[in-house]
Amino acid sequence: MAADPKQTHVATQWKHDSRFICCRFDPQGRYVFAGAEDYAIHRFEVDTGIKVTLPEHDCWVRAFAFTPDGETMISAGSDGQLVWWPVAEAQPKPQRTVAAHDGWIRALAVSPDGKILASGGNDNRLKLWNIADGTLIHESPPHDSNVYSTFFHPGGEFVLSGTLLGAVKQWEVGTGKLVREFDAKTLHTYNGGQAVDYGGIRSMALSPDGQYFACGGLHKASNPLGAVNEPLVELFEWESQKKKVSQISDGKKGIIWRVVYHPDAFLIGGCGGSGGGLLFFWKPDQDKPFHTVKLPDTVRDMDLHPDGLRIATAHYDRHIRISSMTPKA
Amino acid sequence: MRCDYACGTADHGIARRQFLGGLAAGSAAGIVGGLGTLTQPAAAKELATSQKRVLLFFMSGGLSQLESWDPKPKTDTGGPFRAIPTSVPGTHISELLPLTAQQMHHLAIVRSVNTKENEHSKGRFMMECGRRQMAGAKYPHIGAVAAKALAPENATLPGHIHITPGGSGGRSDNAAYLGPKYASIILGNGKPPQNSARAAELTVDADSRRNAFRRQLNNRFTARRKTAETDVYTYNYEQAQQLMRQGEVFDVSKEPAADHERYGKHAFGKHCLLARRLLENGITFVQVSHSNYDTHNENFNFHLEQVSEFDRSFSAIVNDLAVRGMLESTLIVVMSEFGRTPRINSRYGRDHWGKAWSVVLGGGRIHPGAVYGATNKNGTAVSDKEVDHGELFHTYLQAVGLDSTQSFHVGGREMPMADPAVSAIDELLV
């Protein structure tokens, strides 16, 4: 069955007793892993909703990454530690813990061959780790600010890091050399009156044909402390680095927490903020979404199921929701 | 208004009830009206060496107590930050304050503040003036009270200075019945007072002749029509002359490069270094504002930015005042208009919360290392030794040796220095 974004509806939801922060499907699509404000990771079985809570972290968990075979999950959060987990055990227990960053780890990504983990954090560093033994392979020079997002190019040759101040750096995995930078500073605002930096590269994605590179976040931040801002995706041509289009939201408020390309080449943006919870669907050459779905509560993270039909969203109202891009049953 | 406060006697400005309550008690002596009011030159000289000062940090917008002085990690309200140990065994504060944690043996935390006020301007008024704001009633800012009560009468520099991140300078209207002489002079973005440098086209000689002529006219007018306002005009002109001669006091670039590095090269670091310079040059009250903590959105990211900046500069000045032997004579206060909600909102924000939050004190008579009061497990309510703005205001004054139960004598009326309905927190004072 082909996905039809215009049919998107909430098919399932699971209630928890704490607010959710992040969520990811495992590569085999069996589970949704979710981090919550209760400092724990919760694993929901997609078909049944059965929940298993993993042993408690010492922090809020903010990021997950999986090896491509779906056997190993790595989590990270505000304690700066990486934790390895077996994905499918009845009651997963930590396999390895690595003190990785000074301060929060905000983002993780795994290389296409499943051998290297990239982590980015509040010590302004991007670090590459050997997944097999947890050893450090490479550490970047300091970025201009906190590293908010990481992304492996599907070719495996490059890894990218995105910062609070809107710098996107492309690194050569084999040498650790900085190759080039994308100018995504429109996703950052400095508000002098409030004396805060705001925005950042919250998420990155590459179109299935490798032609377009998307950076998600926010703009029009006239009042950062009051959440007056609008979601924005800046779309670049991967090869030329020219900006293709600014993908906007028709005045809706919020932050793009995650962007994911569907195999059918449309971009999905998970958005939350003062405008509530939204899913945007954009075609690559258009600035406005061709479809928008309003969800019951604000979104804090989003992921696409390997089947290309289902979308998981993590919500402030203590729900994980699974939306389906298919007609209602 | 007729000027009857400057009656020429040694105790003008002092209410009928004796204001110098604790003079015999040495460093805890009560001093009101400035050192110039003392009739004993020897006593004045002795007190000049221990001139009391106040350094107030105002965390504009409402600092989160949970991301600073009263962390509640691993609770439903605690947020993502951890608590770290400090130089006071058993006392933990937020991990956002690692450098301040090393200075906590100089400081005291009041964790049980309940002001019952969630509106910015009202909360600020309460914390800075020690009273609840009411229509038709004006009360002086703590800085005006300090300048009036602690600054030498013949001080050549203003006694009440605000250093703010922005603004253009000028004089505020925050002295109420104490008179504009004690209102704050604002150093907008740390710049010297407005127009404090002689215009380049004006020669020294011409300037001198101009001022002599002004004094002559003032004296003639004052001889017949002396009022509070004319007194203030005259005082301001004369103080401006003195200030212009001492312009270097406001020039933070004169401080060593190593100190600039240590305090941080951002605006707040520069402002803290300027505050140290002003205090060392005899300014009685210096307020440094740090902005902005009104984090209804992304509370954790913004506190990470702001508190980390505060930590470096604040810890540096606390350490410096201690090393230089100035803490005994300098009260430090860190306050906001309120705290922030324990409940985390949908935008990772925290909202306004006056019911259970924290203030930090240090120096003067404040008990170093003390933790006063407590909140419940997840910080939603005060669980022990609740205090409010009025009690804190008394405590600030008593920490610099004033008898806060006394009154100013203004226009024939006794104006209590602090809310007579409440009193100081004795356990915080040594």
Automatic annotation (TrEMBL), chain A:
WD repeat segments: 54-85, 98-139, 140-181
Keywords: Repeat, WD repeat
SMART domains according to UniProt: WD40
The protein's name in its UniProt record: WD domain, G-beta repeat
TrEMBL record, chain B:
Superkingdom assignment: Bacteria
Protein name: Sulfatase
Pfam families referenced in this protein's UniProt entry, alphabetically: DUF1501 (PF07394)
PANTHER family for this protein: BLL7424 PROTEIN, DUF1501 DOMAIN-CONTAINING PROTEIN
Organism encoding this protein: Symmachiella dynata
